Amino acid sequence: MKFGGTSVATLPRWQNIRELVASRRAEGARVLVVVSALTGITDALKQMCAQEDKGKRVEAARAIAQRHYDLLDHMQLAVPATLAERLSELAMLAEDGPGAMGELAWAALVQAHGELMSSALGAAFLSHAGLPTEWLDARDCLAAVALPNQNERTKLLSAMVEARPDPALNARLAELGEVFITQGFIAREAQGRTVLLGRGGSDTSASYFGALLKAQRVEIWTDVAGMFTANPRQVPGARLLQRLDYEEAQEIASTGAKVLHPRCLSPLREPRVPMLIKDTNRPELEGTVIGPEVREHAPSVKAISARKGITLVSMESVGMWQQVGFLADVFAQFKQHGLSVDLIGSAETNVTVSLDPTENLLDSDAIAALASDLAKVCRVKVIAPCAAITLVGRGMRSMLHTLSGVLAEFGQIRVHLISQSSNNLNLTFVVDENVVDDLLPHLHELLIAAGALRTDDSALFGPSWQALYGSGEVAAPAASWWRTAERERLLRLGAERTPRYVYHLPTVRQQARELKSLGAVDRLHYAVKANTHPAILKALAEEGFGFECVSPGELKAVLAAVPESAPLLFTPNFAPRADYEWALTTRATISLDALYQLENWGELFRGREIVLRVDLGRGLGHHEKVRTGGSGSKFGLPVELVDSFLRLADAHGVIVRGLHAHLGSGILDEGHWGEVYGQLASLAERIGSVAFLDIGGGLGVPSHPGEARLDIAALDRVLRSVKAAYPHYQLWMEPGRYLVADAGVLLARVTQQKGKGSWRYLGVDTGMNSLIRPALYEAWHEIVNLTRLDEPATGLFQVVGPICESGDVLGTDRRLPEAQEGDVVLVAQAGAYGKVMSSPYNMRDEAEEVILD
Ligand code: LLP
């Protein structure tokens, strides 16, 4: 168990350590505690070393001693002999100065006293507090090894230890006792001199000891519960990583995470000793376990990190294509200047590399000197300041297909270099430094939304930093009616018959009321294509909604279910003339979205007021198939044709009363509707006859755990601010999904299971015939075994249906309990675009619909 400087600096912290050690003892474990120096002491010792004046050195040593006396006082303990010895040795070192020992060896020995003293003090405290504790000199156990290219400084101040399991040490300790305390940061080299371990020192010591003793585990106790999916200071929604393998953890540590120094993991790899990171103040939190690779996890991006202060050096070979030895020539210069290269991109005539400031002393002189030497062999360009954004995850290259949405984000900015690590663990983008702070939280969100960062796998991903340490304002969990109050009823319904869609009307009403709180919106229409069940249509009519329909069938369904007073919109696309003719016999307001309709059927619309649907040139949404803007999509009249449309309208006595735009479905950015609103309003100013603007639907509902919900109050603020500029237009909206998605679930029953290699398939009695969204859009729906909701989810399954298509998959890589034939499985968020998109394919029974009210 390793404790850092702040964890050993006060009495309460030591009491805490005592409790933690005692709890491990209670589990039957023998404990070795590794400690750092009290906070501030290492710095004080360094300052003492830099002091030429003997008097001042002696004075500094006295002040350092006093810190330890004060803490002992507080503990009501006498000065233990081990500590007294250290203190007098330190006083002597201060008195004597480096002398014959040499500056560096003396400095190492002086600084080692921080840990020697804190551990001596700790041994006294723990023994006094009822845990007899043996003080162990780490230098007797950790032998520093000589490495090639080591100078005196690195040998003494940044040493390395080769730690192999040492049964003799184990046996020796077994005779001595049950609890031990030793020092982090220090070791001894072949000549017997004390050496320091350099950066990451105490954690690395803990790992060395873990390896030497082949410990059950190494616990790093610190001020945070572990490693996160991103730096929580930049991304408060970053999730705790509960399980990592050594390589992943090392990669995350190397690319920016500060919790661990990357070098402290390698000693544990070979002896396969797991490391656990824990929060000293919140020991109940799970923490991060780092261990050997575990195969049965869903492939996932584990973290996104950013390193700033990166310098890129681009080297162009001058006119010598594929010149032999070019790389050797340029890299020789980096060696010469003592600079270590991080990322590399290469072409026939160009090599671009990055220099990381954490590995290099990068000042402008060092770079200038390098550049001038490089200029002798090539044309040099230095690009700085840059930042490296890295996605980390085992098997990165097999996840590329999940990253399209994330990569699209890089379309807006300059990317200087892309590099994928040859160990297949990371993918790095080097961009300008100034874009990183805004970009990172956004990328993190996109990774979750794209299902690339599999936050649904609760074995891997824990709570967000915000939930653990923030103000407690966490987005409300998605509708959970089926998890709690209605679970029993759903089990009965599922046992009776499957497949079945079940809709929860209170949730529909709740969503409707939330949208009605949008004060800026004058009229809400429900886009009935999402779900045409009559009970839902009735409930929304009662809430005062109008209805948006796209076919005569939808219009008829609505007319049959809702009162005469409910406003209707008819917004078809590429519909036949007869549809318009029929719709004109109803009270629906009709929208046109092409020149064709007026050019060819103009007389139909003579004297009518219509809505013009325009294409604002771009689409948005959860998948490219639901984006309805731009020339790649068939919807709307391009803005440049609006004048032609107006001339045609004039010619046929048609009045453009409304403007309409709908850019896509599943949008989670509140700003989007403000932009559409503003664009439609300024277009309306040109037209004159317009009275209302319909900014479409598309309000998204987060599907992946950890994705943020739309902030309806924020949306209202966005809309109000546009309305303030254009108060003379009514504002209309037409959401579908938002109202019904969470209100519906699909129930199915387990039919059979199959294993294939490392893959496990869980079959249920319906699939893409009932719910096509996963097959069509790779949409993510939460899937649970409702029969075994409380059982631990131990297996990783592909949840598939009985349809003869490889695409018949309802969910990939789902962590679920072991299932039995007949178990009721629930597919969540199936209230929107579920039943309405189902088909009789393979002549399988259609899912029945049940209403809960
Ligand atoms: N208005 C118009 C003109 C639309 O075309 C749509 C949806 C909506 C409103 C409602 O969009 P919502 O609020 O539901 O996102 N089947 C896809 C969604 C396709 C949406 C088609 N149009 C899915 O399951 O995600």
Q: What spatial order of strands do you see in the largest sheet?
A: 3-6-2-1-9-12-13-11
Let me know the largest β-sheet. Answer: 8 strands, mixed
Report the β-strand fraction as a percent range: 15-25%
| Count of spatially separate domains | 4
User: What is the name of the CATH architecture of the largest domain?
Assistant: Alpha-Beta Barrel
Distinct compounds present: ligand LLP
Structure description:
By secondary structure, the protein is α/β, with parallel strands linked by helices. It folds into four domains: 2-216, Acetylglutamate kinase-like (Carbamate kinase, 3-Layer(aba) Sandwich); 300-468, VC0802-like (2-Layer Sandwich); 505-738, Alanine racemase (TIM Barrel), CATH 3.20.20; 741-851, Lyase, Ornithine Decarboxylase, Chain A, domain 1 (Beta Barrel). The strands form seven sheets. Strands 3-6-2-1-9-12-13-11 form an eight-stranded mixed β-sheet, sandwiched between helices. Strands 21, 31, 32, 33, 34, 35, 36 and 37 form an eight-stranded mixed β-sheet that branches. Helix 23 (671-687) links the parallel strand 28 and strand 29 (692-694). Helix 17 runs parallel beside helix 18 (534-542), helix 18 (534-542) packs across helix 19 and helix 23 (671-687) packs parallel to helix 24 (712-725). The radius of gyration is 34 Å and the shape is elongated. This is Diaminopimelate decarboxylase. The modification N6-(pyridoxal phosphate)lysine is found at residue 529. Keywords: Amino-acid biosynthesis, ATP-binding, Decarboxylase, Kinase, Lyase, Nucleotide-binding, Pyridoxal phosphate, Transferase. GO terms for molecular function: aspartate kinase activity; ATP binding; diaminopimelate decarboxylase activity.
